[in-house]
Amino acid sequence: MMRRIDFLAVAALGLSVALIGSWAIASPGYMDAEYYFATARQLVQGSGLREPFLWNFLDDPAGIPHASHLYWMPGVSLVAAAGMSLLGEGFRAAQAPFILLAGTIPVLTAWLSHRTYPSRQRAWLAGALAAFPGFFLPYLLTTDAFALYAWLGALALFAFAFAHQLPQGRRWLLAGALAGLCHWTRADGALMLLVGVAALLLMPRARLRSAAFLIVGYVLVMLPWWARNLSEIGSPFPSGLARSLWFADYDDLFLFPASDLTPARWLAQGLGSIGRVRLQALASNLQSLVVVNGLAFLAPLAIWGGWRHRADPVVRLHAIYLAALLLVMSLVFPFAGPRGGFFHSSVAVMPLVWILSAIGLEAFVEAGVRRRGWHAVRARRIFGVAAIGLAAFVTVFVYQQRALGPRGGGLAWQASQARQQAIVEAFPVLRTTRLAVAVNDPPGFHLAGGAHAVPIPDGGPEMLLEAAARYGVGWVVLEFDHPHELSALYARPAGAPGLRLAGAARSPQGNPVYLLEILPRGEGG
């Protein structure tokens, strides 16, 4: 049986990897994490759940500042704000809770393994594999949903299985509350309710009573958020999420006005294009499942372990969640899914993947003992150490690529922050302007310079000027990474109607960056 010293040792390993890994993760790193950090800072500074920028136009925002978290959910910002309330307003303070959550995922994995399939050796192996999470490591350590959702998602999925096995009211109440917390963390966390329904349908009896406890637990957790939305926007459910169903490509996320996102426009692509995009998304997500979640070499072991326990509610409910997530992120949201949505939400199944990998490795060794006469104890030790070593190698390799850079000579993770800081330093007027600025990365730009910001809409100069008039935009930062329809403006930034070239600089990558001033209506460039 696992003892307290075993769990402490697993915790020490996990926390050591997380602390060492956090060294290069000294800034949010990308727009999602910047958004959560920026909105957490607003909370700590007393501005509430408001954002001094827009990062999309999906809910037809009336102006800036704007009610926050109408696309992404608030759970990550609340956790980051808790860290900042205790430790200060810097990124390291906001990051601290996520380092702790990431570092203790191995303990959670070992405990769930021992609780579900009792074996000290198996729990140790599962926990050690979780300490080296491959592609997930740098993302677990920033202000994003990964570490929080790994905890909440795994607890919810196992709680549903435990409630199914022993259908007590308090178990279903807890499972419903955990599903609500998953929804607070990610919008697609609502899929956990589908898992709950599946767990109910697999039960032979007491479904109505259990369903009542499940719903009460979920609603009690979600009710404050629905009430907040009702107060802010007049509806518990933001309209932007519904509009995202009608994307024709990923850049529709920045279409202005968002009211153009209609079923008719979506159907105008043609059924062939609609189907092709979804098949490509499914293929991409399946590849990610094998290579990213399964690290390629763990995937067959996890499948083997899952097949051994295919009748177990834990395995069946995880499979239902994973199938639902694959379908939603491929067929319903085929652009968001392959670009990070599936990666984000699949972290909920990772504790079971590590547990089943340990079981699959045992099955592999047993086959070797039967067929080739291996020494069981020695083979388990050799292959267990090899699996951990290979997971560690992949983790270090990916970390070097993503966090340090391909050659390890620079901190690649800081590139986003450095880019925004370079823009603010190149154009000092952006520090003092009272007008909003149109940029590629509004949350990151706000963190660097403090000004209100909006995204550059996905369209031509006319759409840009229309959005500028609506949101009081006075400046546009035009970079190498710009909408296709602004290519002519980027090639010749001087003399465009309604715009004046106010400055030029170079990005840290050496590409031209132009500052354009929005002129009063009717004036030329």
Would you give an account of this structure?
With 525 residues, this protein is of the alpha/beta class. It has four domains: 1-49 and 75-135 and 388-410, no CATH class; 145-244, no CATH class; 270-374, no CATH class; 414-518, D-Maltodextrin-Binding Protein, domain 2 (3-Layer(aba) Sandwich). Helices cover 62% and strands 6% of the residues. β6 (499-506) and β7 form a beta hairpin. α3 packs across α4, α8 (169-185) runs antiparallel to α9 and α14 (298-308) packs across α17 (350-372).
Number of folding domains? 4
Task: Give a quick account of the main beta sheet: strands, pairing sense, barrel closure.
Answer: 5 strands, mixed
Overall residue-averaged pLDDT value: 94
The number of distinct β-strands equals: 7
- Strand line-up across the major sheet: 4-3-5-7-6
The low-confidence parts are none
Tell me the structural class.
Answer: alpha/beta
Percentage of residues in strands: 5-15%
State the main characteristics.
6% strand; 62% helix; 5-stranded mixed β-sheet; 4 domains; alpha/beta; 525 residues; single chain; two-stranded antiparallel sheet; globular
